[in-house]
Design a protein that fits this description.
CATH class: Alpha Beta
Number of strands: 7
Radius of gyration: 18 Å
Number of helices: 6
Largest sheet: 7 strands, antiparallel
Strand order of the largest sheet: 1-4-3-2-5-7-6
Number of domains: 1
Order of helices and strands: HEHHEEEEHHEHE
Shape: globular
CATH topology: NADH Oxidase
CATH architecture: 3-Layer(aba) Sandwich
Strand content: 15-25%
CATH superfamily: NADH Oxidase
Mean pLDDT: 91
């Protein structure tokens, strides 16, 4: 009887974990404003409407625009030698998630609102989402630390600009940030020594 009870508890815990992941809807890959309009309207925004959150469809579109797959093994932003070493973590009110780009699933990492912990400025906790750029060194296979740093920060810049342009197209505000409490955030996300936090980017609806 005890064995059966234990199995039921484990199954229940497993189902709870699965339920906490977020399967995002298929991203919409067409539409939006013309590129020249987006470039003209691209800007950094640091004031967000904390009462207005990004819905799952918009979040799906945003993540695909940032770093999704637009071909079988290639993505919407380039990466050095196609190593695709950058992972995106998403901090939203319900928790922090690892974005599985292939499956388009947000996999729960921490079931707690840690938006405030992703930056040092007061506006970060008001943004609907804070996207954390994490370099997985095991994927990069760089010859030395300097080359890794140069390449991965350049790659992060491409992804960040995609986010900026998407936000300009959709009426969202965004700002890329280097002011990130990396050591504390790495601990909270239980990252390994081979996972390096690079930058974070706040996204949300700007205040009028």
């Amino acid at each position: 009887m005890k064995k059966i009870s234990l199995i039921l508890v484990l199954v229940s815990l497993s189902l709870t974990t699965i339920a906490q992941d977020i399967k995002l809807p298929e991203p919409k890959r067409t539409g939006g404003k013309p590129l020249m309009d987006c470039l003209n309207e691209r800007k950094s925004v640091r004031t967000f409407d904390e009462n207005k959150q990004i819905d799952n469809q918009t979040l799906s579109n945003l993540l695909w625009a940032a770093w999704g797959y637009n071909r079988d093994d290639k993505r919407t932003a380039p990466s050095s030698r196609n190593k695709q070493e950058i992972d995106l973590y998403v901090a939203i009110p319900s928790g922090v998630y690892f974005w599985d780009a292939k499956a388009n699933v947000l996999k729960l990492i921490v079931a707690k609102d840690l938006r405030k912990e992703t930056g040092m400025q007061p506006f970060v906790e008001k943004a609907s989402a804070n996207i954390i750029f994490v370099c997985n060194k095991t994927k990069a296979d760089a010859k030395n630390e300097q080359l890794l740093t140069e390449a991965t920060y350049a790659n992060a810049g491409f992804i960040s600009q995609n986010i900026y342009l998407f936000c300009a197209s959709e009426g969202l505000g965004s700002v890329i940030r280097g002011s990130v409490p990396k050591e504390n955030l790495s601990r909270l996300l239980n990252l390994t020594p081979d996972q390096l936090i690079l930058l974070a980017q706040s996204v949300g609806y700007p205040t009028k």
